[in-house]
Specification:
Elements (H helix, E strand, L loop, with lengths): L1 H19 L108 E2 L1 E2 L13 E7 L6 E10 L5 E4 L3 E5 L5 E2 L2 E4 L5 E4 L3 E10 L18 E5 L6 E5 L6 H4 E4 L10
Parallel strand pairs: 1-10, 8-13
Antiparallel strand pairs: 2-9, 3-4, 4-10, 5-9, 6-7, 6-11, 10-13, 11-12
C-alpha cells in the first residue's frame, strides 16, 4: 500500500513539474533577438521592417559615413547624391553631363552668333569728275607722268570699231590739256605696229584738276584696205597702245586687245573733251 501511494505521488509531482515548464498564457511568446548579418546596417529585430526616417538618418539603404557598408554614398563634389526631398527624385547631375541643365558643349566652329558675315559686294566704282573747259595760261600742260589712261572698246559694227579713251589727272596739281591724242600700237615684243592718228574736229583747251578726266573717241576700220592681206589679219596683232597727251612726248602705255587696225593702222580721234561718252 505504501508503494502504491509513493508511485502516485511521483506521477503527480512529475506532472506538475512538466506543467510548470510552459509559459503563462497572458505573456505570449518571447521573441528571440536576431543578430544582424555582417555588412547590413540597422537590421530590424524580429524581422520587422523599420519605418524610414524623413530626416535622412533613418532612411532605408543610406549608409553612415565611414561605415563601409552597402548603401548610397553621401553626396559630395562630383558624386551623385540623394536629391533633397526624399526618395523618388532624380539625383543631381553635374553641369555639362548628360541630363544636366548647365552646359551643352559649345562648337567652336559654330558661326550662328548673329554676327553679320563680311560683305562680298565690291565697292562702287567712283566715276571721275570731268575736266573744266578753258585753261589759265599759267597752268602747266598735262604730262604723261601726271596722267593715267584707260581704253573702253565696243564690238565691231559695219566694218569699223569704236573705243573711248579717257585720261585722268593723278597728280596733286591742275594741268592743261589741249588737242588730240597721239597714238602708237606695239606688238608683244614691244615693236611698233603700223599706226597713224587722223585728227578730227576742233580742239578746245581744258583744265584737269586733280582727279578730273577728259575723253577722246577713237574709230578705226576692220576691213582690209588696198595692199593689205584679205585673208587672216590685215595687220600684225598689237598688245599695247601708247597714248601721248599733247604737247607732251611722254607716253602712257595701256593694254590693248581690240584686234588689228586695218587701213595700215589708221585711227580717227576726236579732240579731248570734258564731256564723257554716253555709249
Amino acid at each position: 500500500m505504501k508503494n502504491l501511494r509513493a508511485t502516485v505521488a511521483t506521477i503527480i509531482l512529475t506532472a506538475g513539474v512538466l506543467a510548470g515548464c510552459g509559459a503563462p498564457d497572458d505573456l505570449g511568446e518571447a521573441a528571440l533577438p536576431v543578430a544582424a548579418p555582417a555588412g547590413q546596417a540597422g537590421a530590424p529585430v524580429g524581422g520587422a521592417a523599420p519605418v524610414p526616417d524623413a530626416a535622412g538618418a533613418g532612411q532605408a539603404g543610406v549608409a553612415q559615413a565611414g561605415a563601409g557598408q552597402a548603401g548610397a554614398p553621401q553626396a559630395g563634389a562630383g558624386q551623385a547624391g540623394v536629391a533633397p526631398g526624399g526618395a523618388g527624385q532624380a539625383a543631381a547631375v553635374p553641369p555639362g553631363t548628360a541630363g544636366g541643365t548647365g552646359g551643352s558643349a559649345t562648337d567652336k566652329n559654330d558661326k550662328s552668333d548673329g554676327a553679320a558675315p563680311a560683305s562680298t559686294t565690291p565697292a562702287a566704282t567712283t566715276k571721275p569728275k570731268p575736266a573744266t573747259e578753258g585753261a589759265d595760261p599759267a597752268t602747266a600742260p598735262c604730262s604723261g607722268i601726271s596722267l593715267t589712261a584707260q581704253l573702253r572698246t565696243t564690238a565691231p559694227a559695219k566694218g569699223k570699231r569704236t573705243a573711248y579713251l579717257s585720261v585722268v589727272n593723278k597728280s596733286s596739281q591742275p594741268c592743261a590739256l589741249n588737242g588730240h591724242p597721239d597714238l602708237q600700237l606695239l606688238d608683244g615684243a614691244d615693236d611698233p605696229v603700223s599706226t597713224g592718228t587722223e585728227r578730227l574736229g576742233t580742239k578746245k583747251p581744258l583744265t584737269l584738276t586733280p582727279g578730273a578726266a577728259a575723253w577722246s573717241t577713237l574709230v578705226w576700220s576692220t576691213v582690209a584696205g588696198p595692199d593689205e592681206p584679205t585673208t587672216g589679219d590685215c595687220q600684225r596683232a598689237a598688245t599695247i597702245l601708247t597714248v601721248y597727251a599733247p604737247p607732251d612726248n611722254v607716253g602712257i602705255e595701256i593694254p590693248y586687245s581690240a584686234g588689228p587696225v586695218c587701213q595700215f593702222g589708221q585711227i580717227n580721234a576726236t579732240p579731248f573733251s570734258a564731256t564723257a561718252p554716253t555709249a
